[in-house]
Design a protein that fits this description.
It contains twelve helices and ten strands. The protein is of the alpha/beta class. The longest helix is centred in the C-terminal third of the chain and has 28 residues, at 248-275.
């Protein structure tokens, strides 16, 4: 049975990164796939031109300009997808050569949704710290999220929740799990291009996450509490002490980076919480 894989990619002014992402898809062993690029209306780069170039090279690719947030962008892209299987990527991701073939094989064997491991890379010290951090999180269920799902399952649960600016991937993951779906995990991986990552950019993004995490906490207070615990994160690091000891400089940098993230996140989360309206009842209801 041939499985058509629909790959949904929201993007915003990210042509160089998207170019590498699409080339990694072009090099796949598995050829039964389509790509849906959902661009932000504010984009001022040449993403649409890149899509045209890839179409001329033979790629089955669609271009939308209806991306207002990661969750909404993913959901809208999935609405025009024609495949039996949907894979959600970001513009700064590249995929290993056998990923699509493995996804199709796992679905044929009975899986409804798949976790795809991520490996970070980049050109700066802080990007290498992010690589070490992700290595410590491998296989940790609360910190991983499903990226690949049968299209009928995606439709049944209502897709990504547009209200979730932060936590949209894990929110989706938890709702799929609530359906009792059969889950799998690939051995092939996603390469996450951190680029010229700086500590300043890390903390700026953490401010955005902290402010929007207030929304996620209304739905999933226990999950947000676990993720926000310095004790839980540091425990994961020290469980991987052999890895840390093999990269001592990166280990110190990673612990410093996470401490700064926690400090900034905690301050802005508390500040935003005080301004928010009363809490909504937590739960994992379908999104319509």
């Amino acid at each position: 049975m041939t499985v058509l894989v629909s790959i949904v990619i929201p993007t915003y002014n990210a042509r160089p990164l998207l170019d590498e992402c699409l080339r990694s898809l072009e090099n796949q062993d598995y050829r039964e796939f389509e790509v849906i690029v959902n661009d932000d209306p504010r984009s001022s780069d040449s993403t649409e031109q890149l899509v045209g170039e890839m179409r001329d090279r033979g790629m089955s690719i669609k271009y939308l300009r209806e991306n207002s947030s990661m969750a909404q962008g993913r959901r809208r892209g999935a609405e025009v997808a024609e495949g039996e299987l949907i894979l959600h990527l970001d513009a700064d991701m590249e995929v290993s050569r056998g990923l699509l073939a493995e996804c199709a094989d796992l679905v044929r064997s009975g899986c409804d949704a798949l976790v795809v491991p991520e490996v970070s890379f980049g050109s700066t010290f802080w990007a290498r710290c992010r690589w070490l951090e992700r290595k410590c999180y491998e296989g940790v269920e609360p910190l991983e999220a499903l990226r690949c799902v049968r299209s009928e399952i995606y439709s049944e649960i209502g897709g990504h929740n547009p209200e979730m600016i932060y936590f949209e991937d894990k929110d989706f993951d938890l709702r799929v799990q609530d359906r009792g779906c059969s889950l799998g995990r690939t051995t092939e991986i996603i390469y996450h291009n951190e680029g010229h990552l700086s500590l300043r950019s890390i903390l700026r993004k953490r401010v955005d996450y902290a402010r929007s995490a207030v929304i996620a906490a209304r739905y999933y207070p226990d999950e947000i509490k676990w993720r926000a615990s310095m004790r839980n994160r540091y425990a994961l690091f020290f469980e991987n002490r052999v890895l840390l000891l093999s990269h001592p400089v990166l280990a110190v940098g990673t612990l410093f980076m996470k401490t700064c993230e926690f400090a900034v996140s905690g301050f802005y989360f508390l500040a935003t919480s005080r301004q928010s309206v009363g809490p909504r009842q937590a739960g994992s209801s379908e999104i319509r």
